[in-house]
Amino acid sequence: MDLGLKGKVVVVTGAAGIKGSIGETIVQSLANEGAIPVIIDRNARGFRYAEELQNKGVDSIFVQTDLSDYTQIEAAAKVIEEKYERVDILINNVGVNDGAGLDASVDDFIYSLKLNMVSCFAMTKYCLPMLKKVKGNILNIGSKVALTGQGGTSGYAASKGGVFGLTREWAVDLIKNGIRSNAIVIAESWTPAYDAWIKTLDDSEEKLKSIVKKIPLENRMTTPDEIANQCLFTISERSSHTTGQFITVDGGYVHLDRSLLIE
């Protein structure tokens, strides 16, 4: 299926994670569709990712940006405008489950909000004039933590809950501009960050087996490729009448009847 993304300028925040991370996988999938990925991240590996894409003939740039700093976000939007003059799609992907719980300082909690939620507002605000030019659309990457809680991560949970609220608010705000706003809900996905986290736990192998056993569809983790595929379909014109939606990609982990887990 041709998703019609060829030549589309797609800004992806938090896209310079380790190979196999969700943002990096989205960027690679966009490149495969002939889109123009704009990588926004603070990690300098983004320079290498953009260069690798350029060497393959893909039009792509990296704008190194600390997404907890809205002044840097504003500057990044100006770079994008000077280079491309438009943004067809904005994917607010940045998210760090940073463990800022009730025992954290207020400053740590506020930092988590800045990185995980305020960055989405700022990036959308500064890209909005470019989105309006082409009736683009917005996709926010959320987390089941905002819906279910997790424990020990108040900042991340509050941030992703706020991202869901912003998704619906922007869908309402931007109806008059023909701009769609949706969110993807992610639960248990096998990413490098998840792998690193599980290894910090006692009896990590048993804990992983216990988690996977609770995922109803095929008793396996969602892959980053599956998330990227859903993202690309949602931002494409194949989803042209979908807005204000929270689309869960989790093998039924969050919503399906617990009776499915009975052996």
How would you characterize this protein structure?
This protein is of the alpha/beta class. It has 2 domains: 9-187 and 223-249, 3-Layer(aba) Sandwich (Rossmann fold), CATH 3.40.50.720; 194-221, no CATH class. 45% of the residues lie in helices and 14% in strands. The protein contains 9 helices and 7 strands; from the N terminus they run E-H-E-H-E-H-E-H-E-H-H-E-H-H-H-E. The protein has helices at residues 22-32, 45-55, 70-84, 106-134, 145-148, 154-173, 192-198, 204-213, 224-235, and strands at residues 9-13, 36-41, 61-64, 89-92, 137-143, 180-186, 246-249. It has a 7-stranded parallel sheet, sandwiched between helices. The longest helix has 29 residues, at 106-134. The radius of gyration is 18 Å and the shape is globular.
Q: Can I get a quick summary?
A:
With about 260 residues, the chain is an alpha/beta fold. About 45% of the residues lie in helices and about 15% in strands.
Span between N and C termini?
38 Å
Using only CA atoms, what is the Rg? 18 Å
Instruction: Give, in spatial order, the strands making up the sheet with the most strands.
Output: 3-2-1-4-5-6-7
Residues in helix, %: 40-55%
Q: What's the count of strands?
A: 7
From the 3D structure, determine the CATH topology of the largest domain.
Rossmann fold
Oligomer kind: single chain
Describe the sheet with the most strands: 7 strands, parallel
